[in-house]
Amino acid sequence: MICIRNLNLLCSRAELANLPEGKLLINTINAFSYNNARRDVLFEEALTKSDVLIPDGISIVRVCKFLNGKSRPKERIAGWDLFVHEMQRLNEKGGKVMFLGSSEKVLKLIRQKAAIVYPNLEVVTYSPPYKPQFTVEDDLNMVKAINDANPDLLWIGMTAPKQEKWAYANWNRLNIHCHVGTVGAVFDFFAGTYKRAPMIWQRLGLEWLYRLLKEPRRMWRRYIIGNLMFCVLVFREKLGF
Prior knowledge:
Layout: E1 24-29, H1 31-37, H2 41-48, E2 52-55, H3 58-66, H4 79-93, E3 95-101, H5 104-117, E4 121-126, H6 136-149, E5 153-157, H7 162-169, E6 179-182, H8 186-191, H9 199-203, H10 207-214, H11 216-239
Helix pairs in contact: 1-11, 2-7, 10-11
């Protein structure tokens, strides 16, 4: 069972610059994903066996200290932080970036914006079928699209836990040489179809509250019920059961 105190986490944004080159699976963890991983064995395995796991949630940062965890992150490292770092790094030398996930509408906006913000990047996109579970044929088509593109950077955005489980289950089929990040909402943030919380909310660790206030009907279960569940699970871990 996943335990926060035993996780190997990246501890600061500065450490992103030290990630080795080559094929790396980079996942994120927050309260929502921790809750889900406690009851989903494949998702737990996908997270704990990441090459790199980053604390995309102020709650994870604080709980690591509370539980005297193996890792003591100094700060939250959002999926957006990873995205900006990797895109800027690749743009400096030029290369190909692939976006797997989301709708054709969002992917078109991504291509348009990337051409302006990251002019040295060739952008390849693939929109998978919108369905709860992919077929074997769907998986093979996505793997083929990735391998044919042979990108220098790959982003997978199909929401958690679907994106992490897909990347983990198909990892050995991907004949690529690059960093792979599962970044969910970052596709919409970059495309401009969804706005991130203002910086003051982010600095206070209240981005989750901003999202709840913006979309209470969609987010109340995740952030009210989910945060209460997270607290219960953390105290159970603290007490050793």
